[in-house]
TrEMBL record:
It comes from Arcicella aquatica. Belongs to the FKBP-type PPIase family. Transmembrane segments: none annotated. This is Peptidyl-prolyl cis-trans isomerase. Its main location: cytoplasm. Residues 7-89 form the PPIase FKBP-type domain. PANTHER family: FKBP-TYPE PEPTIDYL-PROLYL CIS-TRANS ISOMERASE SLYD. Keywords: Chaperone, Cytoplasm, Isomerase, Rotamase.
Length: 143
């Protein structure tokens, strides 16, 4: 039976969870995830976990943060004085915002991680940065 290898287009069903069991994403009830192995379309550990699987095979892959979204980068935390931010937004810890980058026109998603009387701290790290991930994977097709 054919084994999935770099360059193959694959279709998988998956459930991603944190080490505490919290599910953060799943293809259950949706179409399979389709991508080309070895091209960087998915996180490194997910890609490597599928390599060598055969159609119909199921497995659980443990991915350390370094092979997922990397460690939390302190440079991606920024403290802003409340006076410099729009006053009409009720800032709360956990709130997701989009911040425009100077000059580039690109939008960067950020999370409010601290609110004080005078400042707001925003985190531009990926929400899964610094976390080890576990994926239950089923290889549905190689094409």
């Amino acid at each position: 039976m054919a084994q999935a290898k770099a360059g193959d287009k694959v279709n998988v069903h998956y459930t991603g969870r944190l080490t505490d069991g919290t599910v953060f994403d799943s293809s259950a009830g949706r179409e399979t995830l389709a991508f080309e192995l070895g091209t960087g379309m998915v996180i490194q550990g997910f890609d490597e976990g599928i390599t060598g699987m055969t159609i119909g095979e199921k497995k659980t892959v443990h991915i350390p943060a370094e092979q997922a979204y990397g460690p939390v980068n302190a440079d991606y935390l920024a403290v802003f004085p409340k006076a410099e931010l729009p006053a009409d937004i009720p800032y709360e810890v956990g709130m997701q915002l989009n911040m425009h980058q100077d000059g580039s026109g690109q939008v960067m998603p950020v999370t409010v991680v601290e609110v004080t009387d005078i400042s707001i701290t925003l985190d531009a790290n990926h929400p899964l940065a610094g976390k080890d991930l576990i994926f239950d994977i089923e290889l549905v097709a190689i094409g």
